[in-house]
Amino acid sequence: MRGVIVTILLLTAGVVGLLAQTAPTGTLNIYYIDTEGGQSTLFVGPTGESLLVDTGNAGDRDLGRIVETLKTAGVKQIDHMWTTHYHGDHVGSLLALAKQVPIMHFYDHGKPSPMDRIVSAAFLTSYDELNQGKHTIVKPGDKLKMAGLDITAVASANQFMRSNLPGGGRPNASCMGTQKKDESAYVDADNGESAGFVLSYGRFRTADLGDLTWNGELDLMCPTNRIGTVDLYLTSHHGLEKSGSPALVHALQPRVAVMNNGTRKGAEPGVFRVLRESPGLEDLWQLHWSYNVGLDNTPATFIANVDDNATIAGILLAQPAAGQRGGGGGAAAHMPAYLIKVSALQDGTFTVTNTRNGFSKTYKPSR
């Protein structure tokens, strides 16, 4: 009898131990903040540690939205401030934000591309003063240490990951037929310098590559996919056709894509086509209804910010100006502005919520 009891106790201990290993220990929350076609994304880890990626445009509008999101998320300091690159739609509110919220450490790709003609020299001077003593220039393969998460830089300063992340290392068939583009005329060359990363929380994986351009995507992903697949992909470069190549998107095979577009910026037809042809994509969520694709937008349920029906009808029915997709201009800023929130568990389950209408969809682990 004593032997039976011991056996039962051992079996019970084994089951409890297994449950302890597999049960979620917390939640990773991701907030895609509406910066009208810029980027600002807040990650709050399972222990409350925070990572903010970019700060949108200059001015009270985006600054206010970021500060409000920090308050909503219960974030009193930014533990990690990651700047993908130095364009105004990604660093516009950084200096002003630092006056309102303590920033503990800064990460970026280093000096901007010398070919870029739109980076602000005044910003760089102030930024250098701000980050003294708490600054890391990231290189591919570097880790950002954040409790409970695995965050690996895969691109930075036009250099790319050459070792394999877990799940990576296979030949990328999507490279065949994807040709490089002529990027010699780009005045915004710092896009290609973007510092991007892959973040894992248990079985959940997501990628943010900033505004990495088409050719950089090919350098990163071809001929070998060193990243593997992800569950959630933030569309590169706001959904502009300068980025979002099949070599990247089809190899990542995201189940869900989030597009940080504006009414007139990003969300271009070619990017929609690549996404909809991507194997395994279940849903596209957009920060804005886009006039660049009109009726081809994702269903409105999945769009955080939508103009009123009369405005949309007026735009769709208007005669487009020369060189313009669609007619008219759409609203410059939505008030209130809504965001897209993602809550992920260690087992790979994640829920996406549109804060405009409260619609949520949960994605169970499938890999």
Kindly describe this structure.
The protein has 367 residues and is of the alpha/beta class. It has one domain: Metallo-beta-lactamase, Chain A (4-Layer Sandwich), CATH 3.60.15. It is 24% helix and 22% strand. It has a 9-stranded mixed β-sheet, with no helix packed on it. Strands 7, 8, 9, 11, 12, 14, 15, 16 and 17 form a 9-stranded mixed β-sheet that branches. A two-stranded antiparallel sheet has the order 10-13. Strand 8 (149-156) and strand 9 form a beta hairpin. The longest helix has 21 residues, at 2-22. The chain is globular, with a radius of gyration of 21 Å. Mean pLDDT is 89; it is low at 1-24 and 322-331.
- The overall strand count is 20
CATH fold-level topology: Metallo-beta-lactamase, Chain A
Q: For the record, give the distance between the C-alpha atoms at the N and C termini, rounded to a whole number.
A: 44 Å
The CATH homologous superfamily is termed Ribonuclease Z/Hydroxyacylglutathione hydrolase-like
Helix content: 10-25%
SSE string:
HEEEHEHHEHEEEEEEEHEEHEHEEHEEE
> Strand percentage, roughly?
15-25%
Sum up the overall morphology in one term. Answer: globular
Task: Return the structural class.
Answer: alpha/beta
Q: Which strands sit side by side, in order, in the main sheet?
A: 6-5-4-3-2-1-18-19-20
CATH architecture identity: 4-Layer Sandwich
Number of domains: 1
The radius of gyration over CA amounts to 21 Å
Task: Give average pLDDT, whole number.
Answer: 89
The unreliable regions are 1-24, 322-331
Tally of separate helices:
9
